[in-house]
Amino acid sequence: MEKKPVILVVDDEERNLRLLESVLVPRNYTIVVARDGAEALAKAVSEVPEVILLDVMMPVMDGFEACRRLKADAQTASIPVLLVTALEARADRLKGIEAGATDFISKPIDMEYLLLKVRNALYAKSLLNTVQKNYEQQKQLEEVRDKLTHMIVHDLRTPLMGISGNLELLKMQAGSLMNADQLRYVDHSNFAVWSMVELVNSILAVNRFEQGNIEINLNQDNLKDIAFEAIDLLGSLKSKCNIMVSCSPEPVSALCDRDLIRRVMLNLLSNAVKFTTSGDKIRIAITAETAGIRVRVSDTGPGVPEQFHKKIFEKFGQVAMSKERMMYSTGLGLAFCKMAVEAHGGEIGLESEEGKGSTFWFFLPCTAKDKAAGSPVAANA
Question: Which of 43, 188, 250, 356 measures 20 to 30 Å from 115, CA to CA?
Answer without folding.
Answer: 43
